[in-house]
Design goal:
about 50 residues; alpha+beta; two-stranded antiparallel ribbon; 1 helix
């Protein structure tokens, strides 16, 4: 969150009735998504509430 981005390196899939983290099908599916400053603030506030 310090950089204001989210990096997608795995996907959550149901495999044989279980949820598993798996690698994306293609290299281009791995990506970094920028957050708007308002989103970063909301996520930080949510983290504080959870703690």
């Amino acid at each position: 969150m310090e950089r204001g981005t989210l990096t997608v390196l795995t996907n959550l899939q149901r495999v044989g009735g279980e949820l598993r983290l798996v690698l994306p099908k293609t290299r281009s599916s791995e990506r970094t998504i920028p957050f708007q400053p308002l989103s970063v603030s909301a996520l930080r506030a949510h983290q504080e509430r959870q703690a």
